[in-house]
Amino acid sequence: MGCSSCSTGKDGQPRGCKNNGTCGTDGCNKLTVFDWLSNMSLPNGQKPFDCVEVRFKNSRKEFFRNVDNVPLAIGDVVATQAKSGHDVGIVTLVGELVKVQMKRKKVAADDNTLPKIYRKASQRDIDIWQKSRDKEAEVQKRSREIAISLKLQMKLSDVEFQGDGSKATFYYTAEERVDFRQLIKDMAKAFGIRIEMRQIGYRQEAQRLGGIGSCGRELCCSTWLTDFRSVSTASARYQQLALNPQKLAGQCGKLKCCLNYELDMYLEALKDFPSQDSKLQTKKGVAFCQKADIFKKTLWFSYRDDPATWHALDKDNVLEIIALNKKGQKIDNLEDYAQDNVSEEKMAFENVVGQDSLTRFDRPKKKKRNKKRRKNRPKASSNAQ
């Protein structure tokens, strides 16, 4: 994904801004919000909303109040208030749409405790910010070495420097509680900055790092997904998927978020379907449900005495038989209601490029010398015979 700040190299290939989705023009950012109110003017007498949305590294976004009414636009680099010192971020949203985003994130618009926008970042602020960000890879590598030497059962997945370079936040994942007091002391001594440790889940780690999913596209959590809904194996059961952990798990090691995308449609379709625990009473015996196909609206039943033989029944026929069983009536057998086994026609390969075989070049060529030799051979005389 490119942006206007991505230049082109000598070979014609895009060189890229190498900011990993945090370029200054906000053209290739993750979780970017389109400002569809940007071309609309405010009514007479209404003041513009004084809060802005500022984006920092990866998917971290926060709301700030523009107390001094600094003229800001999307893509401006600003210096913001922090707990100590100041931070540097990129403005991603201004105007009335910020109020909608704050309501969505459950942030009060009249909250007086919101941090403030100091100013537009000067060139000196940007230089310090970029210098600090360039050190993140080396600091992450060194911090991992320190954690391994202390034999801590944790994984440092990412490092984020504050805009003024005085503080660094280390994001880590761990199965159990970790005592990292000695780790903080060693890292503060090695880097000479204030250290903050923040534990995140495995899904948040995948969101921050990004990657390519099994579908061939970028991970949903790192591009557009903003909240993580709980995913259970029941979602796979309702969709009749094989409970294979290797196929159902994403790069984070948890169940894929996309299992919930079509779950509502399956639940809606299953409302009209008979339960798979239902039994059909027939004069030939009791039949149990073995399989159900939601798309074809077909259920397969088999007798208790002959479980290997399945009979395909339409959904409406199954509901009709269940209604008869509730009245105390039994049908003769399942064969009267079973669908005819229609074999699906398989599409054979059609040669669209003439009638030549694809392996025509693999065939060995016949030698013409043999024919010439046969012609030149003298015919055997009858005396020789």
Automatic annotation (TrEMBL):
Pfam families: PSP1. Residues 363-378 have a biased composition (Basic residues). InterPro entries: PSP1-like, PSP1_C. Signal peptide: none annotated. Residues 355-385 are annotated as: Disordered. It comes from the Bacteria. Residues 115-200 form the PSP1 C-terminal domain. It comes from Flagellimonas spongiicola. This is PSP1 C-terminal domain-containing protein.
